[in-house]
Amino acid sequence: MLAGPTAVGKGTVSAYVRDHFPQVWLSVSATTRTPRPGEVDGVQYVFLSQDEFDDMVRRGEFLEHAVVHGQASYGTPREPVERARAEGLLPLLEIDLQGARQVREAMPDAHLVFLAPPDMDELVRRLVGRGTEDEAERTRRLRTAETEMAAIEEFDSVIVNDDVRRAAEELVHLMQTDAH
Questions:
Q1: Which of 31, 88, 101, 127 is the most exposed place for a label (fewest CB within 10 A)?
Q2: Are 52 and 135 in contact (CB under 8 A)?
Q3: Which residues touch 60 (CB under 8 Å, ≥6 apart)?
Q4: CA–CA separation, 167 and 53 (whole Å)
Q5: pLDDT tens-digit profile of 95-153?
Q6: Percent of the chain's residues with pLDDT above 90
């Protein structure tokens, strides 16, 4: 399970893993947020209405779920993760801090990896550089990032995302070591 603060590059590292390590199965989270430019339903996320999301919560279909940044709901559908594990694949979940805590409860054997920025200045630069959030949203996300960084000790491993390829390789190495 990969977690870390907003704009640290979880999506970039996960995409690199997906493209270069076929033994890793990348979970696709569900969300109620609006797609960003270029995002495709079912690829980056499964985009749901709030009613659809709430129905899945009521049916117990999420491994973890949360409201993130006080706005959109996100969750990891349970069944595909369980199926991937049964098939001997290495499932990778890209989740937030709340989700990581729920996964720890639901799957105590899960290895939780925290993806950290080289420093907070770099995190701010990445968030601003994305250009996908307005000023109010950036401020909200930076506040959340400070809280997320403070939880680093809750994780089994920490990877600093100073180089995407190196971070991805380290993540896969940890996943393979943990699986054996």
A1: 88
A2: no
A3: 78
A4: 32
A5: 888 889 999 998 888 899 999 999 888 887 877 776 667 788 778 878 888 888 999 99
A6: 68
Block residue for tokens 């939780």? 112
Domain boundaries, the chain: 2-179
CA pair distance 172, 2, nearest whole angstrom: 11
Distances in Å between the alpha carbon of 5 and those of 41, 62, 88? 23, 22, 29
Per residue in 154-165, pLDDT (tens digit) is 999 999 999 999
Binding residues, by number, are 4-11
| pLDDT band (50, 70, 90) for residue 76 | very high
Q: What is the DSSP letter of 155?
A: S
Helices 120-130, 135-150: inter-axial angle, 10-degree rounding: 150
Q: Contact at 8 Å (CB) between 94 and 29?
A: yes
Separation CA 167–CA 88 (nearest Å): 23
Q: What is the pLDDT of residue 131?
A: 65
- Within 34-95, strands assigned E span 45-47, 62-68, 72-77, 90-92, 94-95
Determine whether domain 2-179 maps to CATH 3.40.50.300. yes
Binding residue numbers for ATP: 4-11
